[in-house]
Amino acid sequence: MASRNYETDKPTDSPASEVSIIQQDPPDASVPVKQNGGLNAWLQVLGAFCLSFTTWGIVNAFGAYQSYYQDELLSTNSAFEISWIGSIQAFLLLLVGVLTGPLFDRGFLNALLLTGSFLTVFGIMMTSLCTTYWQVILAQGVCVGLGAGCLFVPSIAVVSTYFTTPIKRAVATGLAVGGSSIGGIIYPIAFRQMQPSLGFEWATRIIGFITMAVDLTAIVT
Predict the structure, then answer these.
(1) CA distance 20 to 128
(2) Does the structure show a pLDDT above 60 at 15?
(3) Residue 76, C-beta contacts closer than 8 angstroms, at least 6 positions apart
(4) 3-class SS string, 72-138
(5) Beta-carbon neighbour count of residue 28 at 10 Å?
(6) Rg value, the chain, Cα
(7) How confident is the model over 175-217, as pLDDT tens digits?
């Protein structure tokens, strides 16, 4: 009996069958693609600019208020005591900004914007009604400081999520942060120009209305 050659019985594949065809799945349309500019992204930059305008802008403008407090409203208090109003305001802005960071990461952006805008405008309006040192501490120092702290993190963090290239992200962040400098210029000038003719109460209220309009612009965008 002749021995069987098992190797010759094996099926031979054609060269074409040895070529593996790699098929790629089409991209999932449900997965969002990160933006790198566009109209919506630059609108976020405008909103962040407005938030910087009404947070650090108000803090930077406290020097105008301190001069008035020393000469008029709180003339019986020392400059050291009056400076605590602005110090508390800036301290709470930074402290609350650290605490609200995790809330921003969890998606509570709208809640932070609404809460911060309300507290900031409410604190300014209440400042216009103050007549004693501790009232100013609570209204302008604590209330405005808490509101500005809620707005501080969104004004910086939201911009970077809409840009992927370093150059665009740097330009967008620089424009957004520039609102603090513009606010620090406009708020003191507005207060010093309006206070002699309109009085402290209405000068402060008009600043509150300006802050409300700017914050609403940030919320809408």
Answers:
(1) 77
(2) no
(3) none
(4) HHCCCCCHHHHHHHHHHHHHHHHHHHHHHHHHHHCCCHHHHHHHHHHHHHHHHHHHCCCCCHHHHHH
(5) 6
(6) 29
(7) 998 888 899 999 999 999 999 999 999 999 999 999 999 999 9
Quick one: what percent of the chain has pLDDT higher than 90? 52
Q: How far apart are CA 160 and CA 36, in angstroms?
A: 10
Give the C-alpha separation, 79 to 177, whole Å.
30
Q: Which pair of tokens denotes residue 92?
A: 């709470």
Q: 155 near 58, Cβ under 8 Å? A: no
Sign, CA dihedral 33-36-42-45, equals positive
157: which 2 tokens? 């963090």
The token pair at 167 is 């150059």
| Nearest alpha-carbon partner for 145 in 184, 92, 96 | 92
